[in-house]
């Protein structure tokens, strides 16, 4: 009797675990990540972007949502984004959870983009990092290369979220080439020091062969040769790719805190 009870317990436990796992798989596969209301993407592009988003989600435990529209209902794009987030309650493993939300408005009167991070997205993609992402994707948006802009946003966000909060991911100190140069320089200094120390002390100086008794200065003359003036043009601020800025983080109407940044393009 006890053996039969044990067998049934194991069977029901296994069935419960399998059912729970199956429900999680179905839920993940049925998630919608792209809301292309403005119809900026082809079906093939949507599928490719969703593949990239799923990889991003598994790695960062954060959902990446893309929403395009041609009508923000008279709201600022920041407010419109917040309302859209509240309405759908996006989140990786819970409602209103870890999310990156990219909103693009192609309203004929004003084309805008707003990128926001919620929960873990807010922590690892703060306002400063969001501005760096926008620097990379805004030129694509200006050229109407929306697919390239969205792929760039996903990959760059993923790269930046690999660094702990507070670190500038574009710092030259983190670049592989810079670290290689430093390593070579340090190695060169060490080798040079070893060679210098192993060669003995150098005792010959500029005065070794100088006879003070039989040497004198006959005359001294200063001669002006030429003068060089370098002109540098002051760079202009007419950078189309950066567009008009707006945003920063905030709180949605539903009370969710977020990091953020926006541009016109």
Automatic annotation (TrEMBL):
Keyword presence, Metal-binding: no
Keyword hit for Nucleotide-binding: no
Domain TPM, first and last residues per copy: 34-156
Location of the region described as Disordered in the Swiss-Prot/TrEMBL record: 229-265
Domain of life: Bacteria
UniProt keyword terms in alphabetical order: Membrane, Transmembrane, Transmembrane helix
Gly residues bias: start-end ranges: 244-265
A Pfam family hit: TPM_phosphatase
Transmembrane segments: 177-197
Protein name: TPM domain-containing protein
Organism listed in the record: Oceanobacillus profundus
């Amino acid at each position: 009797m006890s053996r039969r009870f044990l067998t049934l317990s194991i069977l029901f436990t296994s069935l419960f675990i399998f059912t729970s796992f199956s429900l999680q798989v179905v839920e993940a596969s049925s998630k919608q990540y792209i809301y292309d209301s403005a119809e900026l993407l082809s079906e093939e592009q949507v599928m490719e972007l969703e593949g990239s988003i799923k990889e991003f989600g598994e790695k960062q435990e954060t959902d990446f949502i893309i929403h395009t529209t041609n009508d923000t209902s008279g709201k600022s794009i920041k407010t419109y984004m917040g309302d859209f987030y509240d309405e759908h309650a996006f989140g990786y493993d819970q409602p209103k959870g870890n999310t990156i939300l990219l909103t693009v408005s192609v309203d004929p009167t004003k084309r805008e983009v707003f990128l926001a991070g919620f929960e873990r997205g807010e922590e690892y993609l703060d306002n400063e990092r969001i501005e760096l992402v926008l620097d990379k994707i805004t030129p694509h948006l200006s050229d109407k290369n929306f697919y390239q802009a969205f792929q760039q946003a996903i990959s760059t966000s993923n790269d930046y979220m690999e660094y702990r909060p507070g670190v500038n991911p574009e710092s030259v100190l983190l670049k592989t080439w810079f670290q290689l140069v430093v390593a070579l320089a340090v190695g060169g200094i060490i080798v040079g020091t070893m060679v210098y120390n192993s060669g003995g002390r150098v005792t010959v100086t500029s005065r070794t062969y100088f006879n003070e008794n039989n040497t004198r200065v006959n005359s001294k003359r200063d001669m002006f040769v030429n003068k060089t003036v370098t002109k540098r043009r002051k760079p202009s601020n007419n950078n189309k790719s950066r567009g008009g800025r707006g945003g920063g983080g905030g709180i949605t109407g539903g009370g969710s805190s977020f990091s953020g940044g926006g541009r016109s393009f």
